[in-house]
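Here is a protein:
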Amino acid sequence: MATNRLSPYTSSNLISFAERMERLRQDAIGVAFEHTAALLRTFEEAASLAEQVADGGEAYRVGVREIARSAYIDLAASGLNLRSIMERDLSAN
């Protein structure tokens, strides 16, 4: 014999679950944005340091200056791309 069990979840509970899930999703998006902003700041700081070393002259060995120059180019480009993505996300919201 089949029995029907009443679910403890009413429609009002489901709405509150949906609202809670949406709040959690929004919180996760906010934290991800903050984390991405921290990554961008780190890229910018590292690019600045790499530029200083690359332009440091004879005090630095040639190999060190070349690595720093390459790192500066990569970090600066990645930072610009990351900033562009973040700004696009901000304008979409």
Residues 58-93 form one domain.
